[in-house]
Write a structure and sequence with these properties.
Length: 300
């Protein structure tokens, strides 16, 4: 039992970094997206050994229709009720659950991430503080429009901020607000856009990090207080203002990955205060206003 809990916790920790963040070239690999409108089950599979694209293990997602639970069906012609029932597999982009339910990610009894319909038990709206019961339950205090984003805690749940569900499909995801970006992955929610050079995220403990799947920057709660050059496990393992990078790109890094400072590639001597021999290396953001954003590291 203890070994099973440790394995699940490790899975959650790795998934967190993959879902929310990434680095560009020499960066964490992104998950394979789920199928779009079909009812899906997402299964995470960890790949052992170093990733050729970055500090995180690769995650694959398998999709399938699956059988719905006996608690609900896609439609009940006798009552006019439509949607998927409680506990059944569902599509988080389509939000195809029955009224009073919402489609959220959680860990099932087999230790796999799945999308399932759970009761809406709260009324906090997107942007409001919230509480999450944990990855096994999937329930939170947000209303039907979103889910509670925060620093995952396998044992006891977490505090966070309600974030609106992404619209569209995994391949063409959208957000209602132009100030938000769909992070995709296992937790498809719209996160605030941000500027990593000024760290303008407003949520408590949040930092602005690079997400390789979208080649841009989003706000998320930092996992800990790791400083420049310190070891990091996931994309959120570094303090705000730093990005988790592969060891070969960080001078003096003696572990698999280490934290590196954000910098401006157009600023002369941007990394002069860092370890000698480093340059400001571009992260490859596709948005014009962030083309100059890099990290202090070893050019590859």
């Amino acid at each position: 039992m203890t070994q099973g809990i440790r394995s699940l916790r490790a899975l959650v920790d790795w998934s967190l970094g993959l879902v929310l963040l990434g680095s560009g070239s020499c960066s964490p690999s992104d998950e394979t997206p789920m199928s779009g409108s079909e009812t899906t089950t997402t299964t995470t599979t960890m790949t052992e050994g170093p990733s050729t694209t970055g500090p995180f293990p690769s995650i694959s997602s398998s999709s399938g229709g699956g059988s719905q639970s006996s608690e609900g069906s896609a439609a009940d012609e006798s009552t006019g009720v439509t949607g998927v029932g409680e506990g059944s597999e569902c599509d988080p982009y389509a939000q195809d659950c029955m009224e009073g339910l919402k489609c959220v990610p959680r860990i099932d009894d087999g230790g796999q991430f799945v999308n399932a319909c759970v009761l809406v038990t709260g009324n906090a709206t997107p942007g409001d503080p919230c509480m999450h019961e944990g990855v096994q339950s999937g329930a939170d205090t947000c209303d039907a429009e979103g889910l509670c984003f925060g620093q995952l805690d396998f044992a006891s749940g977490w505090e966070g901020v309600c974030r609106r569900f992404c619209l569209g499909t995994p391949e063409v995801a959208e957000c209602e607000s132009l100030d938000e970006q769909c992070a995709g992955g296992l937790f498809p929610a719209c996160l605030p856009r941000c500027d990593p050079l000024i760290q303008d995220c407003s949520g408590s403990g949040e930092g602005c990090y690079f997400r390789g799947a979208i080649d841009s920057f989003v706000c998320f709660v930092s996992a800990n207080e790791a400083g420049a050059g310190d070891n990091c496990q996931t994309g959120t393992s570094c303090s705000p203002g730093l990005q988790c990078r592969p060891a070969e790109t960080v001078i003096g890094c003696r572990t698999t990955n280490c934290c590196a400072e954000f910098c401006d590639t157009e600023e002369a001597g941007a990394c002069d205060e860092a370890t000698a021999g480093v340059d400001c290396v571009s992260l490859g953001a596709i948005e014009p206003q962030f083309e100059n954003v890099g990290v202090c590291g070893i050019p590859q």
